[in-house]
Amino acid sequence: MPASTFSMIDIIILQSQSGLPSGILVLTPVILLAATGLILLLIDTIFTEVSSDSLLAGVSAIGSLLAFGITGWFLISGLGQPQTGGAITLYGDALVVDGLSLFFILIFTIVTTMVAVASYDYISAQQYKAEFYSLILFAATGMALMSMSNSLATAFVSLELASLPSYALVSFLKDDQSSIEAGLKYLLIGALSSAVFVFGISLVYAATGSLLLSDIAKSVAETELIGVLGIGILMIAGGFAFKTASVPFHFWAPEAYEGAPAPISAFLSSASKAAGFAVAFRVFVEAFPLGSLPVGVDWVLAFQVLAVATMTLGNFAAATQETVKRMLAYSSIGHAGYALIGLAALSAGGPNGDVLGASMAHLFVYGFMNTGAFLFIALVEHWGVGRTFEDYNGLVTRAPIAVVAMTVFLFSLAGLPPFGGFVSKYALFYSAIESGFWWLAAVGAVNSALSLFYYSRVIRAMWIESPTQDLSALDSRPIGLYAAVLFAGVGTLILLPAFGPVVETAQTVAAALF
């Protein structure tokens, strides 16, 4: 690695540790996301009577893409990793910058970029566009802080920062009753889950006397309030299960994803889900380490039950849906079950870094293929084609490039070679087997086979069935939507040969947690 790179990283580390810029440099990606959101509101204030759609979309995409680039540079350079001195803690250890947080910020920022570009066409007829883009950037800021949270208090505040803009984004289509209804349901259920989460935090604090993850880890083995601690951990797990749309806290997801603007469905099902896993991985691995918990407190068993139930229910429910968007909503629930293997297959002394890293790598690939699938639905909604499987009949005759991209997304989601989803699922299931949890891998493989049934319904409709309606609207080529869909498609394909470095990086940064 070039000496100049190391010197810059050394400067950042020394400044953050000395408190000179109060950690501004290591928080550059987060600050960029928040600043971009504020700049969008400023642009809207200045250009009050001039159409600035392309400017708003461009600033949003450039800001999030710049945050992605800086985060990638930090990660490659080893910032916050063992080779450069280890994790960097800030503000009384409330925030931590390490490989795990940087890896997840890559997911948030690239998904935000694709959603911002796609929204240029999707919301072209809507009002309050600046508010729409700024809410996306503020939500992404909260997600980035979630991945950096080193305290239960910070985790809760950052989770709310990510959630509150999401409630407004889901109900953004004011003339669509389903959007308003979805936003209201999401808000009410989200408020309930937040109450459960914060009550669980209070119980853990009562049992351990601290909110910092490292201090909690030191206290859990000595606490006398075992029952209080166990209930607190269970309630915290419930809060994370809501954020990741895991069974039995999944029932908000199909309603919210179906009623929300399709780019927001992509944003929530990819970036927001990854944010939930980012904070869950850190909290449970660092605050409640395996081997030091009192007898009777077994969160791994709880996540094993959640993983199996989420995979199975999500895939079986997806197979019974009649609309493509709702099918993908339940599919995203099933994929939450796959990612839960990262926590469900942990054991004392096992290859925990490998299995947790494989789950992180799968979430990275999922960020491309799932976002792309929902953005294709956004493209179809923009054309006004319809929502059912039959409405997709014959789309290849008028939009072959977009249909090829959607086929790549669906085959990748199903885990078929030669697409990115195949290698990410293979790495995840193989790591579970290595950890001795072959039955989790078997359940995942069976559910992946089942998913091919409902994904193939969309593929058959687009490629084989004859059109049942006039598809002349497909002659239009919305630039933003097409660009975002094609970018996601290329990313899904490139991740097949590039998956080696991705999973190696993920497993390396995950191993540093143990």
From TrEMBL:
InterPro entries: NADH-Q_OxRdtase_suN/2, ND/Mrp_TM. Keywords: Membrane, Oxidoreductase, Transmembrane, Transmembrane helix. It comes from the Archaea. It is a multi-pass membrane protein. The chain crosses the membrane at residues 20-43, 55-76, 96-120, 132-157, 186-213, 225-242, 299-320, 327-348, 360-383, 395-416, 436-458, 479-499. It is found in: Membrane. Its EC number is 1.6.5.-. GO terms for cellular component: membrane. The keyword Cell wall biogenesis/degradation does not apply. It is an enzyme of class 1 (oxidoreductase). The keyword Membrane applies. Residues 149-451 form the NADH:quinone oxidoreductase/Mrp antiporter transmembrane domain. One of its GO terms (biological process) is ATP synthesis coupled electron transport. It holds the Pfam family Proton_antipo_M. GO terms for molecular function: NADH dehydrogenase (ubiquinone) activity; oxidoreductase activity. PANTHER family: NADH DEHYDROGENASE. This is NADH dehydrogenase-like complex subunit N. It comes from Haloquadratum walsbyi (strain DSM 16790 / HBSQ001).
